[in-house]
TrEMBL record:
It catalyses: (3S)-3-hydroxy-3-methylglutaryl-CoA = acetoacetate + acetyl-CoA. GO terms for biological process: ketone body biosynthetic process; L-leucine catabolic process. Belongs to the HMG-CoA lyase family. Pathway: Metabolic intermediate metabolism; (S)-3-hydroxy-3-methylglutaryl-CoA degradation; acetoacetate from (S)-3-hydroxy-3-methylglutaryl-CoA: step 1/1. This is hydroxymethylglutaryl-CoA lyase. One of its GO terms (molecular function) is metal ion binding. Its EC number is 4.1.3.4. Residues 21-58 form the Pyruvate carboxyltransferase domain. It comes from Rotaria socialis.
Length: 58
């Protein structure tokens, strides 16, 4: 299953470091491309600003 979604170079890292999970937010770049209609720039800016205020490490 992992071979289809995760490059094989990453699988060994997953097996070795099972003590934590690293999550990357890619909504502003990739996620908005999945929307059926184009999201206006001011909405994108607000979305990014809200994400940045969550306090997660970038």
């Amino acid at each position: 299953m992992f071979a289809r979604i995760i490059p094989s170079s990453s699988i060994s890292t997953i097996r070795r470091s099972s003590n934590f999970v690293r999550i990357f937010e890619v909504g502003p770049r990739d996620g908005l491309q999945n929307e059926k209609v184009q999201v206006p720039t001011p909405i994108k800016v607000e979305f990014i600003n809200r994400l940045s205020r969550t306090g997660l490490k970038l």
